[in-house]
Design goal:
Chain B: Residues 4-45 form the F-box domain. Chain B: This is F-box domain. The complex is a heterodimer of chains A (169) and B (575). Chain A is α+β, with helices and mostly antiparallel strands and 169 residues long. Chain A has three helices and eleven strands; from the N terminus they run ββββαββαββββαβ. The longest helix of chain A is centred in the middle third of the chain and has 12 residues, at 99-110. With 575 residues, chain B is α/β, with parallel strands linked by helices. The two termini of chain B are 44 Å apart. Chain B has a 21-stranded mixed β-sheet, with helices on one face. A two-stranded parallel ribbon of chain B has the order 5-7. Chain B contains 21 helices and 23 strands. Classes of the chains: A alpha+beta (169), B alpha/beta (575). At the A-B interface, helix 1 of A face loops of B.
């Protein structure tokens, strides 16, 4: 079980299905890789590349101090709530490079479709509006500012349902 | 048989500062030994268990500065249990009892407690300088004692320690009369900082040259601090998020422009990259830049910053800079001497951030490069051969290919020839770290060519005991050898026991050495401490009938003049 910074990443992994569903692939913790691993047969080339093996965690490898590992900002989890859903989810904003990717992931997660975004009118067409809480605590519409600015200031996401969306939006 | 009176000789010795040279001087004759030992002020102890404080003080009664190192290097990567040892308290107690005029204490990988810091702060009236690197075991309460009691404190330098932050008021423990600070580095503290106390402290420290803040110091505080300290030479920025148009940012920009002495920049622990432009005006003066903790800074912002840094001698960076970014470094930083490229994506996202191309570009563009630490996804022999040709002056060459046992990605060959080219060309090489697919051949090259090599790190390499033997027989200047997950066993370990008297230490983990091999070694060499670290099953080794043939998980041996240490925890067996 991969535990980084006290977070159990498997619990918060983005995937279809309820959280807590069974894991097929276990990650093995091995303390060393014995030399018989290395003698790979060089001339056996596979036609269709097999799926990469589950990454085995080797203790103390790569040789990087733990404070460097902790400082890695490649995870940036935010809570996502959807009006009417029984519980919240969490997603890692760093997994997405732009708005379409994020919106698609949210649509998959909560089984809805977001409308079409326009600067003038916000999201039209579906009744679902993605909003987020920024660093100042204000609730903003997702999509107005450049992606980088959004991903670094987004604290929480909330998908508002049509009936709650004020008409002005 | 001195031609000059002792005072004259002593005066000459004053000009000899390196401990290696002083050690050499002391071997010339009894008279020089005596003069040297009374005049030695700075003592360096590379392994705190090689000697004890009583003997240290007997030989060097006038010491003013002590450097101590504790745990073996692999402790940095969690291979050594926390309770293994390296306690500084007995040293401080002995120094305090002897009333030596201690002024400086530098510790690396030692266990430091609040009690030791308190004792330190009260025992030495002239104490000036505390440098703690990769230490653990203390809290901000210990720092508070240092702040409160060391009246002439000049340096408080905390580098990458594990400090329990009680979010207390240690900064406000510096009395108002304390105006002597030159170095204040608390970047590794995780908790909140009393910003008011910090600003007042900086404002009354006109000699402050080095200031490294933790992430709890935000941009507006930084701006105020810079206004108080335009004489700063070395700055570690904490939190750096803000809107480029905000008032604090503009104030910071104006303050930075006045810092004409600024030469070294680091930190950016939480950074908004578009604010980096505040530093552009002073970049042309920078000789050292450490952005290895700044995961947010990459791409065009990073490149723009680097393009201003033409005088850079030292650069620590994350691999998100990419090969293209390294090419920019190569064409801009012609004075570069030391480069460290750290991995940024440790969760295995599989980004090929830097490859052999970046390394080759750097070697071609930076003729003064002598030290490199390079984490990468792939390497080729051809690239290493080119690097060796471009940079025959390497002193430190540490290459870490992230995937163990990975061969040359073009030819699928082991990387023996590439590393061989490095050791053959770099006649001054003192430190080497290997990675990738390697056979015994690379060790043959190392033994043959690496005449100045003092430290060698081996992981997942070699085929047979011959590999280790090549190194032990060939590298006359070897001091520290650390090996993990390699097929070296008792034959190599026992071949030349006297070799270990010339070395500081040997570490072997997950290799093929057995308990009986280690016992035989301990028998043959009573001047060695042979330690077996066996965390998992304390008694398994004794009970098992085949006990001799059991493989030892972790072996750490080191020469010592004071025999077995008394402070080892139960899971450490000293044979």
């Amino acid at each position: 079980m991969e535990v980084i910074n006290g977070l159990n990443l498997k619990d918060t992994e983005l995937r279809l299905g309820l959280p807590g569903a069974q894991e097929e692939q276990q990650q093995q913790q091995v303390s060393c890789v014995r030399s018989n691993n290395k003698r790979k047969n060089n001339d056996s080339k596979e036609e269709s590349a097999p799926p990469p093996p589950a990454k085995t965690q080797i203790v103390g490898w790569p040789p990087v101090r733990s404070n460097r590992k902790n400082n890695n900002k490649n995870v940036s989890y935010v809570k996502v709530s959807m009006d009417g859903a029984p519980y919240l989810r969490k997603i890692d904003l760093k997994m997405y490079k732009n708005y379409p990717e994020l919106l698609k992931a949210l649509e998959n997660m909560f089984k809805f479709t977001v409308g079409e975004y326009s600067e003038r009118q916000g999201y039209k067409g579906s009744g679902f509006v993605p909003t987020y809480e920024d660093k100042d605590g204000d609730w903003m519409l997702v999509g107005d500012v450049p992606w980088d600015m959004f991903s670094s200031s987004c604290q929480k996401l909330r998908i508002m349902k049509g009936s709650e969306v004020p008409p002005a939006l | 048989m001195n031609y000059f009176p002792d005072e004259v000789i002593e005066h000459v010795f004053d000009f000899v500062t390196s401990h290696k040279d002083r050690n050499a001087i002391s071997l010339v004759c009894k008279s020089w030994y005596k003069i040297e030992r009374y005049s030695r002020q700075k003592v360096f102890i590379g392994n705190c268990y090689a000697i004890n404080p009583e003997r240290l003080l007997r030989r060097f009664p006038c010491l003013k500065s002590l450097t101590l190192k504790g745990k073996p290097h692999f402790a940095d990567f969690n291979l050594v249990p926390h309770e293994w040892g390296g306690f500084v308290l007995p040293w401080i107690e002995a120094l305090a009892r002897s009333r030596v005029g201690l002024e400086e204490l530098r510790l690396k990988r030692m266990v430091v407690t609040d009690e030791s810091l308190e004792l330190l702060s009260r025992s030495f009236v002239n104490f000036k300088s505390l440098v703690l690197v990769s230490c653990e075991g203390f809290t901000t309460d210990g720092l508070a004692s240092i702040a409160a009691n060391c009246r002439h404190l000049r340096d408080l330098d905390l580098q990458e320690n594990e400090i329990d932050d009680h979010r207390g008021q240690w900064l406000s423990c510096f009395p108002d009369t304390c105006t002597t600070l030159v170095t204040l580095n608390f970047a590794c503290l995780e908790g909140e900082t009393n910003l008011v106390a910090l600003e007042r402290l900086v404002a009354r420290s006109p000699n402050l040259k080095s200031l490294k803040l933790n992430r709890a110091v935000p941009l507006d505080a930084l701006a105020r601090l810079m206004v108080c300290a335009p004489q700063i030479v070395d700055l570690g920025v904490g939190s750096y998020e803000n809107d480029p148009d905000s008032e604090s940012y503009l104030k910071l920009k104006a303050a930075i422009k006045k810092c004409t002495l600024l030469r070294s920049l680091s930190g950016f622990l939480e950074a908004a990259p578009h604010c980096l432009s505040a530093f552009h005006p002073i970049c042309h003066n920078l000789t050292s830049l450490n952005l290895s903790y700044a995961a947010e800074i990459h791409g065009s912002h990073l490149i723009k910053l680097i393009q201003h840094c033409k005088k850079l001698q030292r650069l620590w960076i994350l691999d998100s800079i990419g090969d293209k970014g390294l090419e920019v470094v190569a064409s801009t930083c012609k004075e570069l001497q030391e480069l460290r490229v750290f991995p940024s994506d440790l969760l295995g996202g599989g980004n090929t951030a830097v490859t052999e191309e970046g390394l080759v570009a750097i070697s071609a563009g930076c003729p003064k490069l002598h030290s490199i630490l390079y984490f990468c996804q792939q390497m080729t022999n051809a690239a290493l051969v080119t690097v060796a040709k471009n940079c025959p002056n390497f002193i430190r060459f540490r290459l870490c290919i992230l995937e163990p046992n990975k061969p040359d990605h073009v030819t699928s060959q082991p990387l023996d020839e590439g590393f061989g080219a490095i050791v053959k060309a770099c006649k001054s090489l003192r430190r080497l770290s290997l990675s990738g697919l390697l056979t015994d051949q690379v060790f043959l090259y190392i033994g043959m060519y690496a005449n100045q090599l003092e430290m060698l790190s081996i992981a997942f390499a070699g085929d047979t005991d011959k590999g280790m033997l090549y190194v032990l027989n060939g590298c006359k200047k070897m001091k520290k050898l650390e090996i993990r997950d390699s097929p070296f066993g008792d034959t190599a370990l026992l071949a030349d026991v006297s070799k270990y008297e010339t070395m500081r230490s040997l570490w072997m983990s997950s290799c093929e050495v057995t308990l009986s091999g280690c016992k035989r070694l301990a028998q043959k060499a009573p001047w060695l401490n042979v330690e077996i670290i066996n965390e998992n099953d304390n008694n398994r080794m004794e009970e098992n009938g085949h006990e001799g043939r059991q493989k030892v998980d972790k072996l750490y041996l080191y020469r010592t003049v004071v025999g077995t240490r008394m402070d080892a925890p139960p899971f450490v067996w000293i044979l």
